[in-house]
Every structure is written in C-alpha cells, then in structure tokens.
Amino acid sequence: MKMNVGLTLRAAKGCWRLNLSQQCAHGSIGLFVPPSPPVDPEKVKELQRFVSLSKRLLVMTGAGVSTESGIPDYRSEKVGLYARTDRRPIQHRDFVQRAPVRQRYWARNFVGWPRFSSHQPNPAHWALSSWERLGKLYWLVTQNVDALHTKAGSQRLTELHGCMHRVLCLACGEQTPRGVLQERFEALNPTWRAEAHGLAPDGDVFLTEEQVQSFRVPSCARCGGPLKPDVVFFGDTVSPDKVDFVHRRVKEADSLLVVGSSLQVYSGYRFILTAREKKLPIAILNIGPTRSDHLACLKLDSRCGELLPLIDPQ
C-alpha cells in the first residue's frame, strides 16, 4: 500500500499552522488497519462468555487498538511502519548520548505533534472505559503512548511504555506537559519551516537532514538538562517498579484479555507468561498471529473497535 501524506508547517502572523493533505485528514482512520475477515457471530458469543465469566478481568492493549484512530503501528502486515518504509524507531542509547540525534528527533516530533495530539479515542477505547465504570475491568495495561485510554476516561490504567504527552528531563527528572514544550519550540524557532511526508506510530514524521540542522531545541527550564519524551524508547527497559506493579495486578486477576497486540515485545509478553503460570484463561483479539496464540483459549481476528462494543460487560 502506498501512502502519500504531506504535512507543511509554517509561521503566519505569529501563529504556527500544520496543513495536512486531504487524504490524511479524512482517510487515515482505516489507512493503518490491516484487512480482517467479517465478524464471526460464534466468536462474538465465545468472547461474550469469556468476559461474562470473568470477575477480575485484566486487559492489555497494544498498537492495534489505536490504528482505528488513525495512528499507525509498527508490525501490521502491509500497513505497519516496517512494511511501508525502511524507517526504524529511535534507539534509547542514540537519543541519550548524541545531541544531533535529539535535535533530529525533536524537529520531527515538533512537526508531527499537532496531528498526533489531536487523535481521539475510537469505539474500542470507549468500550474498555465503560467496562471499567461498570466494574468488569479490574485493570488496564497499555503498551501505547498515545493517551487515548486516558482521553476515553480509563483510570485503572498503567501506561507500560509511558506517554508522549509528558516530557522528562534526563538530568533532574522534572516532568512537564508536552504542550508546554511545543510553545517553547515555537518561541525558539519563529521562522523555521519544514515539509514532511509520512507518519510514524509515536508522532514522528520524516524530515531531511538539511531541514533539521537549523532547528533549535530547548533545555530543561529548571536545570538546563536534555529533554526526552516520558516514554520507553527501543533499547530501553521498563522500570522494575512498574513491572512489579503489573505483575501484581496480573496475579490478582482471574483472566486476561489481549487487545490489539502481537506481543512481539518482551515487555508485554512477560505478563502473558505470568498469566500462564497462574493458570489464568487468556483470550486474544488481534488481526494476525501473535507470539502467544498457542497459550490462548480464544483467538479472534477482528477489528478491536468493531468487536468490543458488541460485548455486554454486565
């Protein structure tokens, strides 16, 4: 599938404006969702029974729950970032050790942020939020960094890999909202402009090296240290405290439902292993195979936003 998404950022009368191609603005909802068979009524009944029997249901979500909101993932066949481009996500060590890498990252993120931050929850996010309100969902663990579960109202939530809507100082640990940093970027780069093509799962866009060389990156307002999104980059690890916390939630649960994740990354897969050790029933809703299909008592290949609203959590 060929994707042609154009973004242009420019200053006009003191205001920054992001122009998106019509294709991106109106056609991205299904652009990143891989094809799937029609919903099987019998499978719906099986998932309904799985949920109905659960009293302390733990749900773990991945990028596949957000593709219907217009956010691409990495691994989906034909439509994921790996399938569409030869681009690869930034590595933690490169970001921490090299100032030019941070400059390139923040320039691209600055251009992509207005689009990324505007994404809204889809029916899957709203369904899981309602399950929590009704007392069915015991805990929600997401591998996503897009804040869409929070926007949908989920509160019993662990963001395993952090959230792009927060920024962290690598020196002093000061945490600030990402929107505040956007304003500092604008103040430091009043005449900088760039045109980018393509969107990545973490709000990144694609720019040339020439475009980013003049981009100025602010330091921490408190100590002058380098700034980083409050997320776990590839090559980094989830904090032991957070891992232990999620392990406890899994051990307290009586069943586990995976939604929109291939479970290829060990940071999420490890909790499936814990569920197996506790002999918890495992169900998986994901388009395409996952690393844990052989451990699941139920596997469904459907759109998350199409299937989850069909389930009655009461």
UniProtKB/TrEMBL annotation:
Assembly with partners or alone: Interacts with GLUD1, IDE and SLC25A5. Interacts with DLAT and PDHX.
The gene coding this protein: SIRT4
- Main location class: mitochondrion
Q: Might you report a single GO cellular component term?
A: mitochondrial matrix
Q: What is this protein called?
A: NAD-dependent protein lipoamidase sirtuin-4, mitochondrial
Spell out the family assignment given in the record's similarity comment: Belongs to the sirtuin family. Class II subfamily.
Substrates-to-products reaction catalysed: L-cysteinyl-[protein] + NAD(+) = S-(ADP-D-ribosyl)-L-cysteinyl-[protein] + nicotinamide + H(+); N(6)-biotinyl-L-lysyl-[protein] + NAD(+) + H2O = 2''-O-biotinyl-ADP-D-ribose + nicotinamide + L-lysyl-[protein]; N(6)-acetyl-L-lysyl-[protein] + NAD(+) + H2O = 2''-O-acetyl-ADP-D-ribose + nicotinamide + L-lysyl-[protein]; N(6)-[(R)-lipoyl]-L-lysyl-[protein] + NAD(+) + H2O = 2''-O-lipoyl-ADP-D-ribose + nicotinamide + L-lysyl-[protein]
- Where, by residue number, does NAD(+) bind? 62-82, 143-146, 260-262, 286-288, 304
Domain Deacetylase sirtuin-type as annotated: residue spans: 37-314
Query: What extra comment accompanies this record?
Result: According to some authors, ADP-ribosyltransferase activity of sirtuins may be an inefficient side reaction of the deacetylase activity and may not be physiologically relevant.
Q: Which species?
A: Myotis myotis
Write down the EC number. 2.3.1.-, 2.4.2.-, 2.3.1.286
The family database entries (HAMAP family) matched by this protein are listed as: Sirtuin_ClassII
What are the catalytic residues? 161
